[in-house]
Amino acid sequence: MMNIFVTGATGVLGTSLVPRLVEAGYTVSAMSRTEENDERLRRAGAHPVRVNLFDVEALKQVLVGHEAIYHLATKIPPVTQMGRSSAWLENDRLRRDGARNLVEATLAIGTIQTIIYPSFDFLYPSSGDTWLDAQTTPIKTATLSSTVEAEEAVARFAASDPSRRRGISLRLGSFYGPEAPSSWEMLNLARKGFGAFPGASTGYLPQVWLQDAINALLLALTEPVPSGIYDIVDDEPVTRAQMYTILAHAVGRKRLLALPDLLMRLMTGAKYADTSRSLRISNHLFKAVSSWQPIVPDARIGWDMMAQKQNK
Question: Tell me, what is one Gene Ontology molecular-function annotation carried by this entry (predicted)?
Fold first, then answer.
């Protein structure tokens, strides 16, 4: 079976993806920086690897013998710091420079056939109720450029030898589910009677059930998905107004009080423009090239499932 190298293996995505890869029979090498994470990875069946993502020569040595890479590494700042541009610098470096270095190393050693990168879906211009997909030109602002450049690095890898190499970027909606700590925070806030979504209530919010995102990441590897960019979101996008109703229903309230937009601007700061757009995004392109079908097709079902799990 294939040897796979994973960055960000102990993050929200990696924690779910690594055991699935191991169960499928793959040999997984996972980048780790602490002994605690070493143990977590071993328990999941992976082999922890110490390597600096910003050292191309070291990456070349580690990647020899591998056939595929998942570049999951991120460093999302705490909620209290998300509004500061400086709080995102390490995350930007991991995305942009990490992807570039991995591609440089893989091109040098020649054994890697596939690179898969989980991007995110807040790259599009605000478009009201118009449907969007990966054929829509993304916005490349200071706050978004790192993930766009990571996608470009993955595309360069694929273009270097299209007959032998695949580069796939999956633009994920905001993921939710039992494995996502932010989902529990959102439900707890709803139980107190509040909802927090930046932007107009009529705007659409792209979301995806976390395990559906994991399934998409797996299928991108195991099925003959062509190189390219694909959107991984629920079948039925909902507006922010609908989300307030969905969360209220999930926690047994008649309604939620929306936090004032001024407060949301203060909380999200540099990220307000990114998170407040109306993004009605379709997943049809990925469905057309894979067997992927979301287990949870829309947020109404997913958030009710979350609340029921919390009540047990």
Answer: aldehyde dehydrogenase (NAD+) activity
Q: How far apart are CA 23 and CA 47, in angstroms?
A: 14
Instruction: Tell the residue number behind the tokens 């790192």, with chain if given.
Output: 146
CA-to-CA distance for 114 and 222, rounded, in angstroms? Answer: 10
Closest residue by Cα to residue 157 from 108, 221, 222: 108
DSSP, collapsed to helix, strand or coil, labels residue 63 as helix
What is the b/e burial string over 56-66, where b = at least 16 CB atoms within 10 angstroms of the residue's CB?
A: eeebbebbeeb
Report which of 218, 289, 232 is spatially closest to residue 4, judged by C-alpha positions: 218
Residue 170 has pLDDT above 90, yes or no: yes
204-205 vs 238-239, strand pairing mode = antiparallel
CA angle 78, 83, 84 (to 5 degrees): 90
The answer to pTM > 0.90 is yes
- Least Cα distance to 311 among 175, 178, 176 occurs for 178
Length of the chain: 312
The confidence band for 308, taking pLDDT boundaries of 50, 70 and 90, is: confident
Q: Could you tell me which residues come within 8 angstroms of residue 3 by beta carbon, excluding any fewer than 6 positions away?
A: 26, 27, 29, 65, 66, 67, 68
How many whole angstroms separate alpha carbon 75 and alpha carbon 188? 24
Cα–Cα distances (Å) from 56 to 73, 106, 148, 157, 170, in that order, read: 16, 9, 21, 15, 24
Query: CA angle 162-64-100, nearest 5°?
Result: 55
> Kind of pairing, strands 27-31 and 3-7?
parallel
